[in-house]
Amino acid sequence: MLSKNFVPPASPLEKEVPIPMTSSIVPGSLCLLLLSITRIYQERNLEGAFWFAVLLNLKHIYLFVAPAYFVYLLRCYCFQSHADGRIRWDSFSPVRLISLGIIVLSVFAVSFGPFIHMGQLLQLLSRLFPVKRGLCHAYWAPNFWVLYNVADKAATVSASKFNLLAIESNRTAVMTGGLVQEYDHVVLPSITPFVTLVVTLLAITPSLFLLWSRPRGPASFVRALVLCAFGSFMFSWHVHEKAILLIILPLSLLMLYKKKDAQLFLVISTVGHYSLFPLLYRQQEIPIKVCLLLIYTLYIYAGLGKMFGFSWSWSSLPLLSQAESLYILGLVPLELYNSVIHSALGLSERLPFLPLLLTSFYCAVGVTYSWIKFYWLTFQEKPRKTEGKMQ
């Protein structure tokens, strides 16, 4: 079953174009995320708030995108706008704010009530936010901290080689040992949970400010949601690699709007899905994951290329620049090394973490590029006049 419900009637791309992203193939909590976004698109904001509150209590990783929900619902449900999009401060509706609060707090009361009654709230919170597991997961999610770790590792090796620093051998190895633990950087400043919190807030604040000052309906909400997911994925503490899906799925709802959004989606979806390959680590799983990604990639590149009038060529992939195409094609030799060459060279025992490191670093470059480009595209959008009614 294919869905066509995410292209609003006003979209210039209102065609019979199926989007390969539905609740029937989206696992678990991600299905509720799409349901919540759908309700926002349909201007059924209270239902959207309810389903997101349920979702947040099912999986607290969705705190990544909670700021976008808070700002959008407060701005566009509790306030009206002037014709030019500016907020009408005298239009604030306490009734609507109370309605939102009752719905959200009711869900949290049902979820947390039993733990509060048993006096286990602090124990619950300590398990939800285990800050002692280290900056990065055992397999590094491809974000900014991968680049930071690699820079520290390179500086450490260089300093050790030229006798610039006295470095203990166990300190140089622990970071790339593939273990879930806290560690200190050797050359660069060590990162604490508070630092990641501050940097994450700084990363998402511009998108929230734009959403508040220039709301343009549900599409602007989804853009802010994607930017919140991007910023949280890039800079949060102990990010799981699967969190990349919080970027890819909402962004898939925008890929039919504009060519530039489609270009970005092709890059981040290809890199993001490939970055999950290490989760399927058995040799017999290699053909499965490669074939699945190849089929999906061919379909999405061909479909979007045809939609926007771009075809395959020897110099570049559909919709992508030559540099972007070369980067995407670079995943092929990377996978060949990880799956075949690394073990053939006898490095599996001596450098078992190297394929994971290469995958994380290479994909982190693409994710960082996509984050910067999507921010730039979002702020390049020209504001348009909006209706003065509440949504």
UniProtKB/TrEMBL annotation:
The keyword Cell inner membrane does not apply. InterPro entries: Glyco_trans_ALG6/ALG8 (IPR004856). GO terms for cellular component: endoplasmic reticulum membrane. The chain crosses the membrane at residues 48-74, 95-116, 191-212, 224-257, 263-281, 293-314, 353-372. It is a multi-pass membrane protein. It is found in: Endoplasmic reticulum membrane. One of its GO terms (molecular function) is glycosyltransferase activity. Keywords: Endoplasmic reticulum, Glycosyltransferase, Membrane, Transferase, Transmembrane, Transmembrane helix. Its EC number is 2.4.1.-. It comes from the Eukaryota. It is an enzyme of class 2 (transferase). It holds the Pfam family Alg6_Alg8. Pathway: Protein modification; protein glycosylation. Belongs to the ALG6/ALG8 glucosyltransferase family. This is Alpha-1,3-glucosyltransferase. It comes from Sinanodonta woodiana.
